[in-house]
Design brief:
Chain lengths: ~220, ~220
DNA sequence: TCAATGCAACTGTGATCACAGACGTCTTCA
DNA sequence: TGAAGACGTCTGTGATCACAGTTGCATTGA
């Protein structure tokens, strides 16, 4: 049985919303893998609720293409084609680039310590081959920055992209030898933010968002 | 009773999906107005189905913030605050700008006649004060272009933005004297696409996406 | 031994019911 | 005449059941 009263899940009165949020995070950090089946009744049993809230959560995820569902067949985590993955990373680079440029205007002095903490977490997770923790720290690093853009709509949209690329990234990381440049542009992004250099922050963020695409290149050529 | 077997709605086996698509278009063209209540049982009766498919459609729309729902209260069309509207139009300008730049690479010779047809439709609708038709033609013009970017993920995300700005635009248009520049940058965008000038297409599209923001300026200052 | 067939256990989907909280109106009392 | 309280109606939400189509395994036949 999966408990839903974790602190991180907002205490909405709604069962559906909590299951939805929980599954979303599982997708972001790669706890659900491409092509994995998720069934309404199984999840309902895991969460110890009826099928009702689960089916609504799954339908929502399917509508934002975080899951795929065919008629009378189990929902599945999508198996992204090369072009689909490239498309997602392209949108991410466009939006995260714009967000980083805006974030320069709102970033606060104490934020940099937090951002550096996420980098340390990524480093530790990478050393332990812990893909989930690595992806979570990576997400939190990026998420923290584009939250500082002060545009809630943009923030939600980028979140949706992480949900969709998460399983695919996790698959790539575990099936791959360590890339030498796992840090991406993260440290340089912090520098640009500290220097309030919006143009530079944008460029670096656009480049970093393509890190996932690089991963794919190595995957498909190996 | 509202019929769902219109040609435009894809013949998915799913009732929920068809109701979802129908409501989405109603939002895009402003058939549902800000703050309007939409109730599960009322819609179920209108569509002549049970509450089940409707509640799933409404929940989906709420999850993408095309509707808002409080506990035990009817779902409502959101009444956007000035900053929320500005945020949406900003994201639209970023994404549609990038899409227009890509569209230059894929646009076909016969496309321009279609695009000009949409402009004529906008002109006619404007002359008849038909806000729904105006918004539909405007949506189809833009939609046609960003579909040509060849990025399905980006296309779906921009679609979602039109769903959210639709009711607000309709409200602005009907409560406003005609702006003199209703055409926006549409004709110039066609020129840029024809000249395969990606940079220009991007600039014009970014500017045009802010047309809605202009509308708001006039609204709030009147 | 292998392939074809059938059955059993799964899948999502729609309908229906029970429930609790919100809202508005109408009545009643001061 | 006014305000306060109660009741009926409407809201979304969760649970449960029936149904039909899919899948995969086991059995049976050649």
């Amino acid at each position: 049985m999966i408990s839903l009263d974790a602190q991180e899940i907002s205490a909405t009165a709604n069962l559906s919303a909590r299951i939805y949020a929980d599954l979303r995070m599982k997708l972001i950090i790669g706890d659900l893998r491409p092509n994995e089946a998720v069934s309404i009744r199984t999840l309902a049993s895991d969460y110890n609720v009826s099928a009702m809230p689960v089916r609504e959560a799954l339908r929502q995820l399917a509508s934002e293409e975080a899951l795929v569902g065919a008629a009378k067949k189990a929902y599945r985590v999508p198996n992204l084609s090369p072009s689909q993955a490239a498309n997602l990373f392209f949108v991410r680079s466009v939006l995260e680039g714009a967000a980083a440029e805006l974030a320069v205007l709102n970033i606060r002095k104490g934020d940099f310590k937090i951002l550096k903490k996420f980098i340390v977490q990524m480093e530790n997770a990478w050393a332990k081959n812990d893909a989930s923790s690595f992806l979570r720290a990576n997400y939190e690093f990026h998420s923290f920055i584009y939250a500082r853009a002060g545009n809630a709509a943009m923030q939600a949209i980028i979140d949706g992209l992480y949900v969709r690329t998460g399983p695919w990234l996790a698959h790539g990381i575990v099936n791959l030898v360590k890339p030498d440049h796992w840090l991406g542009e993260h440290t340089r992004i912090i520098d640009a933010l500290q220097n309030r250099d919006g143009q530079k922050a944008r460029e670096l963020m656009e480049k970093d968002a393509k890190w996932g695409s690089d991963l794919y290149q190595r995957l498909s050529s190996s």
